[in-house]
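Hey team,

Sharing the Lipoprotein-releasing system ATP-binding protein LolD run so nobody has to redo it. Sequence (236 residues) first:
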Amino acid sequence: MTELSSFSLEVDRVCKSFVSGDHRLNVLTDVSLSLCAGDSLAIVGPSGSGKSTLLQIIGTLDRPDSGSVIFENVANDGQSRKVNPFSLEDKQLAELRNQSVGFIFQDHHLLPQLTVLENVLVPCLAFGNSSDANVEHALALIESVGLTDRVDHLPGQLSGGQRERVAIARALVMSPSIILADEPTGNLDRTTAQEMTELMLHLQHSTHSILITVTHSEDLASAMGKQCELVDGKLA
Ligand SMILES: Nc1ncnc2c1ncn2[C@@H]1O[C@H](COP(=O)(O)OP(=O)(O)OP(=O)(O)O)[C@@H](O)[C@H]1O
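Structure output:
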């Protein structure tokens, strides 16, 4: 496999609206942003301003009405490969998402009947890839988030901060180019939130990925390299 030397993300004039009955709600209007491997960005703004919708579109979980999202890989030999995820068939899109994007949610979305190790491996299983190398990588990530002694525990046996650590390890297990975190510290006390922020930034830095967080926390927002504010669906 070709080793990738850089990755970038271009969001260009994305618009999104939701229709309910005869009412159309314009949620995003001409949102553009550009990020490179190693960048971290906080998206802030009032409740209902479209932050999570934008994150879902960047993560290819939702489609824009117009505008584009482009993932670009530039290999070591200088060859550039640009992909518009929304031009792909559903199966290819799901594969691209699985390989390129890691998600961290406020409520973690861990599977309660699976152990810490099994939860971290879930993204690897999605396309039938449960090799020894994946297990080794998952164990290394579990170690890097400080949960080696909890590897066989169930989520219900963990604290909120520990569950967050599992979610961070799971988001990284496919070595994604983009990590998306929606209110990742929303349910944590301030000290734990700070520890999680440092952990996410440390892992993002060491994997040279792009980290985008949606947050109402000024502490988390100010720890990111860049900030942008959405107001009524437009970048302020
Ligand atoms: N699937 C949907 N169908 C209809 N309306 C939606 C849908 N998803 C989001 N919305 C509406 O779009 C607007 C923006 O929602 P979004 O969740 O993106 O805001 P947000 O800035 O993340 O808010 P918060 O900070 O409260 O989480 C809201 O008015 C919401 O009700």
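Residues 4-235 form a domain with the Rossmann fold fold (CATH 3.40.50.300).

Ping me if you want the raw files.
A.
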